[in-house]
Amino acid sequence: MISEGIGRAGLALKAGIAGAVIKLGIPPDVLTLSSLLPMVIAAWNLGQGRLVAAGLWIVLGGALDLIDGAVARASGQTSTFGGILDSVVDRASDTLIYVGAVYYFDSIGAQLYVTLSAVALGGALAVSYARARVENSIPECRVGFTERGERIGLLLLGLFTGHLAQAVTLLAFLSWLTTVQRLLHAHRVIGERERKARRAR
Q1: What was the pLDDT predicted at 179?
Q2: Cβ(171)–Cβ(74) below 8 Å
């Protein structure tokens, strides 16, 4: 009951903000692109070791990223290109944050975590690519432990608690695990479909 109430409150808040943005006449694609600026600032702060500040900027960028879709739906401005732009901007945002982490760990001489940050970045991109590629063949592929929301949440937890190294280590492992889960899901679903097709002949 509590989680449902929180969910309804969140949706109501998002709808209210989206309504205000629509009244200002800001197109959803502009919101999508504007979410990159906080991520650039977050990456800079992260690289300088200002972890809490980086986390706060990521929260702002994430809020803009959430609102753009609500604005598009509420204003009837959803488009195929808008969805593509949103996906590309998400990948750019992920890259900025992990590059900031690489710079930070390199500056303090933590070479193991430089490597793990790079592995985590590759995993984040692989998770998204796996979904996009698989969904060319099956309707949906949202399986796995760490979709983007979970990855951002874990990263924020690491930033706000000062345990970024542990967060990056988990992300390096869980992102690639999620990629494997999606490949296994695709293998199972496509295999079942092909077996049904052969039996129907």
Answers
A1: 96
A2: no
CA distance linking residue 5 with residue 167, whole number of Å: 29
Q: Helix 148-161 and helix 111-134: axis angle, to 10°?
A: 160
Contact 38, 60 (CB under 8 A): yes
Fold of 1-88: Four Helix Bundle (Hemerythrin (Met), subunit A) (1.20.120)
In which residue are the tokens 């593509």 written?
A: 84
Q: Six-digit token pair at 155?
A: 């990263």
The predicted structure's pLDDT at residue 127: 95
42 vs 50: CA distance, rounded Å: 9
Amino acid identity of residue 157, one-letter, is L
Whether 66 contacts 14, CB under 8 Å? yes
Q: Which residue has the higher pLDDT, 94 or 144?
A: 94
* 19 HSE (CA, 13 A, CB side): 6
Q: Which residues have CB under 8 Å from 115's CB, separation 6+?
A: none
Task: Give domain 110-201's CATH number out of 1.10.630.10, 1.20.120.1760, 3.30.420.10, 3.40.50.10090.
Answer: 1.20.120.1760
Tell me if the pTM is above 0.70: yes
Q: Kindly calculate the radius of gyration of the chain based on its CA atoms and give it in whole angstroms.
A: 19
* Interval 137-179: pLDDT, tens: 888 888 888 899 999 999 999 999 999 999 999 999 999 999 9
